Amino acid sequence: MSTWKRDVASGLVVLIPLVVLAFVASWLYQKLVGLPFMEDINLPGYIAEQYVPLVRVLIVLVVFAMLTLAVGYLMRTTIGRLGEGAIDGVINRIPVIRVVYNASKLAVETALSGTEDLQKPVRLEVWNGIRMTAFKTGKTTSDGREVLFMPTAPNITTGFVMEVEPHRIEETNEKVEEALTRILSAGFAETNEGVDINVTEEDGIEDLGRMN
């Protein structure tokens, strides 16, 4: 019975993430297909009707990727930086929209930043003898405290933003993937490191065979 349960659990570990990934991909595909301007994309007549939505989605993704690269290249120039400043100035005058704009912009900059300390996992002792995993954001406050994000488990989309004094932060040698795996699995997917065991071979059995 234990072997049967273990096989089922191993199968679920492999299949459930694939099912979730397929569900998310299907949901995103349906959202893209349902965009209003999709019907305005004219395609050659030799494309089969069942492939038209897929081709339209691929065209939109390619155009978006090219637009992203073009804007990124433009941002390396003075004109691009001036344009970004003008857009920021206009949006920051709108009370509600500026909050959403600045929050989303900061989130993208934080996620795509290439700094070494970005999202670096650390440990923080929140109670006596109890440590919790947090991630550096690469930001500091005006009084020198480091800004950390402590996600909840297993839902890492929620958590706490904390301003912590540097001496209270315990550095770790973990990778981001290792820390996220532990949090997403609610602590059940800790890295298992092998333990060396000294094994001494004895000839007692062979000696008994010779005696017989």
Question: What secondary-structure arrangement, pairings included, does this model have?
Answer:
Elements: H1 2-33, H2 52-74, H3 78-91, H4 95-112, E1 121-127, E2 130-140, E3 146-151, E4 159-164, E5 169-171, H5 176-184, H6 204-211
Protein name: DUF502 domain-containing protein
Pfam family, one: DUF502
Keywords: Membrane, Transmembrane, Transmembrane helix
Cα Rg: 27 Å
Tell me the major beta sheet.
5 strands, antiparallel
Order of helices and strands: HHHHEEEEEHH
Low-pLDDT stretches? 193-202
Fold and architecture overview:
With 212 residues, the chain is α+β, with helices and mostly antiparallel strands. The chain folds into 2 domains: 2-112, no CATH class; 121-184. Helix content is 49%, strand content 16%. It has 6 helices and 5 strands. The chain has helices at 2-33, 52-74, 78-91, 95-112, 176-184, 204-211, and strands spanning 121-127, 130-140, 146-151, 159-164, 169-171. A 5-stranded antiparallel beta sheet has the order 4-3-2-1-5, with helices on one face. Strand 1 (121-127) and strand 2 form a beta hairpin. The longest helix is centred in the N-terminal third of the chain and has 32 residues, at 2-33. The chain is flat, with a radius of gyration of 27 Å. It starts with a helix and ends with a helix. 6% of the residues are buried. Mean pLDDT is 80; it is low at 193-202.
Question: What's this entry about, in short?
Answer:
The chain has helices at 2-33, 52-74, 78-91, 95-112, 176-184, 204-211, and strands spanning 121-127, 130-140, 146-151, 159-164, 169-171. The protein is an alpha+beta fold and 212 residues long.
